[in-house]
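> call design_seq(struct)
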């Protein structure tokens, strides 16, 4: 019996050691920005209207989208933030848990950690608005509240890789 357990343990260890981890891919969106997307997220559709990037993993229930709004002479970053936040504040159980001013690769921005309900599922979201030279950018990443402790750091790492070109 001990021999069978030892062989099973050895087989599982060998299998787990041979799993390949796909390195992040640097994605370039037009001539605006780059961002590093981990290999466990795949392109998706219909997550967010007019998004530049839509990636997710339905097994892990992790999703990521990014949009841009080209700057004009009358671009107002505060109005951009208000418009972005207004998309979700009518959701059930909406709550801004944390708000921070940040700099992402030299660009000023604001991050919001949100909780809300969507189709009876409690969601955790990180919504970031960045004021670039060429455009204002919005990055939205989310998962279920159950996954938030495991996935939040990974989502923040993706967001931190944002660079305007």
């Amino acid at each position: 019996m001990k021999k069978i357990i030892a062989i099973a343990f050895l087989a599982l260890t060998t299998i787990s050691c041979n799993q390949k981890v796909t390195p992040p891919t640097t994605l370039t969106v037009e001539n605006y920005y780059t961002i590093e997307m981990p290999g466990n997220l795949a392109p998706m559709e219909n997550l967010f209207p007019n998004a530049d990037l839509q990636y997710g993993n339905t097994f892990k229930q992790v999703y990521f989208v990014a949009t841009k709004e080209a700057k004009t002479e009358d671009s107002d970053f505060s109005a951009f933030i208000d418009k972005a936040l207004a998309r979700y504040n009518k959701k059930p159980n909406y709550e801004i848990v944390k708000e921070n001013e940040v700099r992402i690769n030299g660009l000023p921005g604001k991050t919001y950690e949100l909780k809300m309900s969507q189709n009876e599922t409690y969601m955790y979201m990180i919504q970031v608005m960045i004021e670039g030279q060429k455009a204002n950018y919005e990055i939205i990443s989310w998962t279920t509240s159950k996954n938030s402790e495991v996935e939040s750091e990974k989502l923040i790492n993706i967001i931190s890789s944002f660079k305007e070109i």
